[in-house]
Specification:
It is built from 14 helices and 13 strands. It is an alpha/beta fold. It starts with a helix and ends in an 8-residue tail after the last helix.
Length: 313
């Protein structure tokens, strides 16, 4: 945008134009726009200021509108990337789990595709543990966090964050299982159980799988350490995400199903990917929610899982 146009967007009319840019992200081309007085009421400005703001957006090439008499004014075309920039939303940074599985790679690829289609600048960073990602969100080091719906429900109840989207079963993990070192009986007294306390899901699942076992010795670890810990016989068991587990843990680990009641109660919420954002930023979150095609996210993820698309994020 030319320099003189930038200066115009710093005026009163320009500030209204920026607010209008965020609102217009929620409108599809060829749709009828709200009346001037409706926009004015929402922005708490006069009709003339709204009219001037729309004119600025048209001059910047961000939108094209057409008045159709008594039918109202229609949005003919919009440049979503320009609207996003003018609205001041900037590049959205999403914090995700480390991409150690094709499912996570597919999820990152799907999110990137959806943001690109929406014309929204997007970047992804990878952090181990939902608690670590939550801290980044609350400290404004990330704008969105990807985690399981199970963890999202717990965190939204205890922290100033809110749910943006639930992508459905099978989008976060396929399933969880109990991993046991071969040659070790599950009933062994003093069983050494690996637990990753940074993962809300795995901490809870592991605690439930070994509930009532006072003899268990807990070993704090991360999944990056599991292969070595099992190989060196430092741990005997754990509960873990079964996506590609054989590739990461080798042949010396036996995979067993979780007890049915644990799996039945938590499977759906644990397997569903959720996006959360900071509470109190409703307008920005609603813009993201209405702009993104979440079906595209899951469709692209499925293509990566089936080997039909190369992960790109």
């Amino acid at each position: 945008m030319p320099h003189h146009a930038d200066e115009r967007f710093l005026t009163r009319n320009g500030m209204a134009a920026r607010q209008l840019a965020a609102l217009l992200l929620n409108h599809a081309p060829q749709s009828r726009l709200p009346r001037l007085r409706d926009f004015a009421g929402e922005l708490k400005v006069g009709n003339g200021t709204v009219q001037a703001g729309l004119q600025l957006l048209e001059e910047a090439g961000a939108v094209e509108t057409k008045a159709r008499g008594h039918l109202g004014t229609f949005l003919i075309r919009s440049d979503r990337a320009a609207l996003w920039r003018l609205a001041g939303l900037g590049t959205l940074l999403a914090a995700m789990p480390l991409p150690y599985s094709h499912r996570y790679e597919g999820l990152a690829t799907g999110l990137k595709a959806a943001f690109e289609e929406a014309g929204a600048p997007f970047a992804v960073t990878f952090m181990r543990g939902a608690s670590t990602r939550l801290a980044a969100l609350l400290e404004h080091k990330a704008d969105l966090v990807v985690l399981s719906r199970f963890a999202a429900d717990r965190l939204t109840a205890d922290h100033p964050v809110e749910l943006l989207a639930d992508l459905g079963p099978g989008t976060y993990v396929g399933s969880h299982g109990l991993l046991l070192r071969r040659g070790v009986a599950l009933e062994t007294k003093g069983l050494r159980v690996a637990v990753d306390s940074s993962s809300e899901d795995l901490r809870m699942l592991t605690a439930r799988a070994f509930a009532g076992r006072e003899d268990v010795e807990w070993v704090e670890s991360s999944y990056m350490q599991l292969r070595g810990l099992f190989a060196r016989e430092r741990v005997d068991a754990t509960v873990w995400n079964l996506d590609e587990v054989s590739d990461h843990l080798g042949p010396d680990v036996e995979v067993m199903p979780l007890r049915e009641e644990i799996d039945r109660e938590l499977a759906q919420r644990n397997s569903s990917a959720a996006l959360i954002g900071r509470a109190g930023e409703g307008d920005a979150l609603e813009t993201v929610r209405s702009s993104l095609d979440f079906e595209l996210v899951t469709r692209v993820q499925g293509e990566v899982l089936r080997g039909e698309r190369v992960p790109l994020y």
